[in-house]
Specification:
The chain is α+β, with helices and mostly antiparallel strands and 73 residues long. It folds into two domains: 37 residues, no CATH class; 35 residues. It contains one helix and five strands. The radius of gyration is 24 Å and the shape is rod-shaped. The model has no long low-confidence stretch (mean pLDDT 84).
């Protein structure tokens, strides 16, 4: 994942140690912003998951309607 790190509104190059993100901070109050940008593949997988969720819900609704109609004599 590509992301940018800002400390007190200044872009910095973070230091990675043992899988942890380390940033230099001054004593006192600091503002830390981490901004990530989604890639095209993430948007594609998101759309696919939304479409599949809608299809599953519609399938369950249709099966319930068919099941309910079969019970009525």
């Amino acid at each position: 994942i590509k992301y940018e790190v800002y400390v007190n509104n200044k872009k910095i190059m973070p230091n990675y140690s043992l899988g942890l993100l380390r940033v230099p901070l001054n004593k006192g109050i600091n503002t830390l912003n981490i901004i990530s940008k989604a890639q095209l593949s993430e948007y594609i997988f998101f759309v696919i998951s939304i479409i599949s969720t809608i299809m599953i819900i519609l399938t369950l609704i249709m099966k319930k309607e068919i099941f309910d109609k079969k019970e009525v004599p």
